[in-house]
Design brief:
Radius of gyration: 16 Å
Order of helices and strands: EEEEEEEEEEE
Largest sheet: 3 strands, antiparallel
Mean pLDDT: 82
Shape: globular
Number of helices: 0
Strand content: over 45%
């Protein structure tokens, strides 16, 4: 096993029928060989082959979403766990039209230019 194109998947702890519903999945690139994910203090850590450790979990202390003008939605958050990834989807389980808006950046603010298209959007920061 080469660890290329590794994916971290998070499932609901309660089955729906006979399967655990998938809550989210995150592409993490190439993981370190023979390295299992580790968990501590509400975070999951995964080592990558290029020498980085990626942490998942620890939601932002505060997430704010507000309309900014007629064509922008301003998303801001606060936390001490940078870098951040911001995703948007059209359903709460992030299965419909999931888009990565901010990818592993230290920024805590994003203006989403979705306009006034009448759709409902869900945002996830990790």
């Amino acid at each position: 096993d080469s660890g290329i194109n590794a994916v971290l998947r998070a499932y609901d702890p309660v089955p729906s029928g006979t399967t655990l519903p998938l809550r989210a999945s995150f592409s993490i690139g190439t993981i370190a060989k023979y390295h299992n994910p580790s968990a501590a203090r509400g975070l999951v850590f995964i080592g990558t082959r290029d020498g980085h450790a990626i942490a998942f979990g620890g939601p932002p202390a505060q997430l704010t979403v507000q309309k900014s003008g007629s064509v922008m939605i301003r998303v801001s958050w606060s936390s001490n766990l940078s870098p951040y990834t911001l995703r948007r989807a059209e359903d709460v389980r992030f299965r419909t039209n999931q888009t990565t808006l901010v990818d592993h950046q230290s920024s805590t603010l994003f203006d989403d230019p979705v306009g006034d298209d009448g759709k409902t959007y869900f945002y996830l920061v990790n």
